[in-house]
Specification:
With 113 residues, the chain is mostly beta strands. It is 0% helix and 46% strand. The protein has strands at 4-6, 24-25, 30-34, 45-51, 63-65, 68-71, 74-78, 88-98, 101-112. 27% of the residues are buried. This is Secreted protein.
């Protein structure tokens, strides 16, 4: 499986809104999230996938992705293999802290197959 790249600040697109294209990823697939200076945070990066408010309820408020790798300007993270995520649109955010303070990197939406 190829990595799905999510640019920082990707516009929010509601599923089936016709307002743009939401990237698709499978459970277990890698996502690449662009985040400025994320490498300065070292191991202090947390990537969380949140259910989209416009999607059907999943019963999950957020999933912490634990399989990740950080490089300059980019976080690689594996979509958790939770069956409950299938056929849902999730919002991907990275949270990290460096000498400049706390940061949130918004990767936008991804539809899990």
């Amino acid at each position: 499986m190829n990595e799905v790249r999510l640019p920082a600040g990707d516009p929010v697109v509601a599923p089936d809104s016709g307002g743009g294209s939401t990237p698709h990823a499978a459970r277990g697939q890698l996502l690449g999230l662009s985040c400025s200076n994320v490498e300065k945070a070292g191991d202090g990066v947390s990537v969380v996938l949140f259910p989209n408010n416009n999607d059907d309820p999943t019963g999950i408020t957020g999933v912490l992705a634990t399989d990740q790798n950080v490089e300059p300007g980019l976080v690689h993270v594996r979509v958790p293999d939770f069956p409950e995520l299938s056929d849902h649109t999730l919002r991907v955010k990275a949270f990290y802290r460096d000498a400049g303070g706390a940061h949130v990197c918004d990767g936008g939406n991804v539809k899990i197959n």
